[in-house]
Amino acid sequence: MTSCVSKKQYELLQKELATANDDLGKCGESLNAYMNRLSVCQQESEGLRGNLKSAQNSLLLREEQIQDLKDQIADIRIQRDAQLNQVEDLTRLSQSANQNIGETLSQLEKKDKYIQLLQAAKTRADSINLALAVNLKSVLEDGIEDDDVEIKVDKTVVYVNLSDKMLYQSGSANITSRASEVLGKIAQIVKSRPEVEVMVEGYTDNVPIKNSCMADNWDLSVKRATAVVRSLQWGHDVDPNRLIAAGRGQYNQLASNDTAEGRATNRRTRIIILPKLDQFYDLLNPNAVPND
């Protein structure tokens, strides 16, 4: 073939071939560059698609949140309307409530006055009983053993416990001369206090008694109480309208009857000095309520 083409043409063809190869190499490089750019574009496209999906999800979430907020607003409006209705109801009830409060305060004021009245009555009663007990102790303290006489203030009354051996002859209801002296001193206090009454209670131990004068311990306790009452009336001029006699028998014991000391304690006479009923009601007089 070389014999058919001249050398000059051959060299020219060689140059054209080299140029074509160069162009082909450049085209390959350009193709590779475009392929790389295509890959990058595809990656960017995938990223954009992911971003778009995320944006769509976020938008859907926002729409759900907006709907929740709308629902909450609707609930709040319903609650607000209900509260407004309650306020209206309360407004309508306020007048009657104020009236009820006024009535309650008035009742409380009355109760407060009554409590003050009771406190004042108790204070006066306590003062009267304390003074009475002090007077009794002062007149009975000389020449009388402590074991034979006991003076106490119990709740609303003053009482004097007198031993059996001091008051009566053994096994009988006969008053001793010593007892008459003691009863005379008690009578002095009683007569100076016209606002009080005197109850005499007789007590025995549990040892049975039966003779021509006494049927049992009930009988003995009553006869001993009436003997003291008669002594106060006949021997010491105490108004019988202020005297009460009662027998308690062997009951309401202070100590065990199993020992001699216990039986001696239970054999006693109690003189109770208590306010008359009208005196008690005077203490509860509403006009006596303290002003402060």
List keywords for this structure.
single chain; 292 residues; alpha+beta; 60s Ribosomal Protein L30, Chain: A; 5-stranded mixed sheet; 5 strands; 11% strand; rod-shaped
Question: What is the CATH architecture term of the domain at 121-283?
Answer: 2-Layer Sandwich
Main pleated-sheet profile? 5 strands, mixed
Q: From the helix content, strand content and strand pairing, which structural class follows? A: alpha+beta
- Largest sheet strand order: 1-2-5-3-4
* CATH topology description of the domain at 121-283: 60s Ribosomal Protein L30, Chain: A
What pattern of helices and strands is seen along the backbone? HEEHHEHEHEH
Mean pLDDT across every amino acid position? 78
Q: Count every beta strand, where a strand is a DSSP E run of 2 or more residues.
A: 5
**Radius of gyration, rounded?**
59 Å
CATH evolutionary superfamily of the domain at 121-283: OmpA-like domain
- Characterize the overall form: rod-shaped
Tell me the distance between the termini: 149 Å
Helix content: 55-70%
Figure out the total of helices.
6
Low-confidence stretches: none
Q: How much strand?
A: 5-15%
CATH domain class name of the domain at 121-283: Alpha Beta
Give your account of this protein's structure:
With 292 residues, the protein is α+β, with helices and mostly antiparallel strands. It has a domain at 121-283: 2-Layer Sandwich (60s Ribosomal Protein L30, Chain: A). Helix content is 64%, strand content 11%. The protein contains 6 helices and 5 strands; from the N terminus they run αββααβαβαβα. The protein has helices at residues 7-140, 164-167, 177-191, 217-235, 260-266, 277-283, and strands at 149-154, 157-163, 196-202, 243-247, 268-275. The chain has a 5-stranded mixed β-sheet. α4 (217-235) links the parallel β3 and β4 (243-247). α1 (7-140) crosses α3 and α3 crosses α4 (217-235). It is rod-shaped and about 190 Å long.
